[in-house]
Design brief:
There is one protein chain. With about 450 residues, the chain is an alpha/beta fold. It has two domains: about 240 residues, no CATH class; about 150 residues, Glycogen Phosphorylase B (Rossmann fold), CATH 3.40.50.2000. The chain has 15 helices and eleven strands. Strand 7, helix 8 and strand 8 form a beta-alpha-beta unit. Helix 1 crosses helix 14 and helix 2 crosses helix 4. The longest helix is centred in the first third of the chain and has 21 residues. The termini are far apart. It holds the Pfam family Exostosin_GT47. It is found in: Golgi apparatus membrane. It comes from Gossypium australe. Keywords: Glycosyltransferase, Golgi apparatus, Signal-anchor, Transferase, Transmembrane. It is a single-pass type II membrane protein.
Length: about 450
């Protein structure tokens, strides 16, 4: 197996379980920050007291700027004749790897009183062929201005990686040993790796949400126990402490929404349309049909910074970047999305900074505004204080910062390690008569609605 361990300066302890990171770019953004930023995210809790992990370097929050710098200064020059083939893997290779891991785990078990709950998480990154890594990033950089949708099926990204990259990683001894259970796939777009998901469903998926309606993910592919929800990259600028103070007196709009009012999803689209029709023209409410681009970003940012509440309804998917735009703008999100799962919810309590409304209540005439007006000024001030505190958890940056999203990913991942090891070991010893283990497709979905929307 060709794998590269993270630098020892980052991994301060060696007695910790291992996760293998398969970081081909199902979405180029996901590839970039997990391949590049994960070393800084394995910091221990002691590092939280410092303002920046790298005090001499100001964090860069622009993906494109970070990508340009990475390719210009950090990406190695790989010879054109480099070997990108995978040698045949035999059972002996897998057994030898398993034996080495067993010996090391026994050392940790005898020597570390807290094993297997050790921190930081120990991560390996595959040294994949350049056509799946640096070449792919260069392709993204060179074509993002010309290609309207780099993440759709049939795009250069998908044509390049889906079949060949899948074969490459599943031929590795580490994959065969665990059947992928200790591997991570950044699948942070509903279309990412869609044609080959059934082959990698045992792996940990980094997802934008978990639509349990079956529109985006098939039953049994995703679960909160196995996978991890990540936030979208906000489209608007962070409203820092100074900005929040200056905007306090300007927040005269009760409720703001800017975006597309008609979406394709059967349920989410109907609900959004009904809510839009109900709220349009109401006093102290701004409902705008919005578009992407710099003009749309400026209008959304201005509207959010002048509003107390920001509407975040479901659309084609349960979540959207709009939720995180509201958070970093200091605008209290009003979440109407029955199937929504949220990032880092094992660490963060969203009830302290957002309002949750079921779709059944939301479509009742006048219900949303009556509810929002019933929230006291004291509660609003408390939620806005919490927004100011929480916003740092949703701003991706290079270098990654303590308590930023990159850091919280690995904190959440640490909680999954024991379960990963359990299912890996169990899969290695079961016989064909062994009973099946219930997975998430046996359980009811997380749904708050009770009546269908006509």
């Amino acid at each position: 197996m060709r794998a590269k361990q993270m630098p020892s300066s980052i991994l301060t302890r060696s007695k910790s379980p291992v996760i293998l990171l398969f970081a081909v770019a199902m979405l180029a953004l996901s590839f970039f920050f997990f391949f590049l930023f994960s070393p800084s995210s394995t910091t221990t809790s002691a590092a939280v007291t410092v303002p920046y992990r790298h005090p001499s370097v100001r964090p860069e929050t622009s993906f494109v700027a970070s990508l340009e710098h990475f390719l210009a200064h950090k990406a190695p020059k790989i010879p054109a004749s480099s070997d990108d083939t995978v040698g045949s893997v035999i059972d002996h290779d897998v057994r030898r790897l398993d034996e080495r891991k067993f010996v090391k785990e026994m050392e940790w078990l005898r020597g570390d009183p807290y094993y297997p709950m050790s921190m930081p998480v120990r991560v390996y990154v595959y040294e994949m062929p350049s056509k799946f890594t640096y070449d792919l990033l260069r392709l993204f950089r060179n074509t993002y201005r010309e290609t309207s949708n780099l993440t759709s099926n049939g795009s250069p990204v998908h044509r390049l990686i889906e079949q060949e990259a899948l074969k490459w990683v599943t031929d590795q001894p580490a994959w065969k040993r665990s059947e992928g259970r200790d591997h991570i796939f950044p699948i942070h777009h509903p279309w990412s790796f869609k044609s080959v998901r059934r082959y990698v469903k045992n792996a940990i998926w980094l997802l934008p949400d978990m639509d349990s309606t079956g529109n985006w993910y098939k039953p049994g592919q995703v679960s909160l126990e196995k996978d991890l929800i990540l936030p979208y990259v906000p489209n608007v600028d962070l409203c820092d402490a100074k900005c929040l103070l200056e905007s306090e007196s300007k927040r005269t709009t009760l409720l703001f929404f800017r975006g597309r009012l008609k979406r394709n999803a059967v349920r989410g689209g109907k609900i959004r349309s009904k809510i839009g029709a109900e709220l349009t023209g109401a006093k102290d409410v701004v409902i705008e049909e919005g578009t992407a681009g710099e003009g749309g970003k400026a209008a959304a940012q201005k509207g959010m910074r002048r509003s107390i509440f920001c509407l975040s309804p479901a659309g084609d998917t349960p979540s959207s970047a709009r939720l995180f735009d509201a958070i970093v703008s200091g605008c209290i999100p009003v979440i109407i999305s029955d199937e929504l799962e949220l990032p880092f919810e094992g660490i963060l309590d969203y009830r302290k900074m957002a309002v949750f409304i079921s779709s059944t209540d939301a479509v009742q005439p006048g219900w949303i505004l009556r509810y929002l007006k019933s929230i006291s000024s004291t509660q609003i001030r408390e939620m806005r204080r919490n927004l100011a505190e929480y916003s740092r958890h949703f701003v991706y940056s290079n270098p990654a910062q303590p308590l930023g999203p990159e850091d919280l990913v690995w904190r959440m991942m640490a909680g999954k390690l024991v379960n990963i090891k359990l299912h890996t070991r169990r899969s290695q010893r079961v016989v064909k008569e062994s009973r099946s283990v219930c997975t998430c497709d046996c359980r009811r979905s997380n749904s708050t609605h009770s009546n269908p929307i006509n």
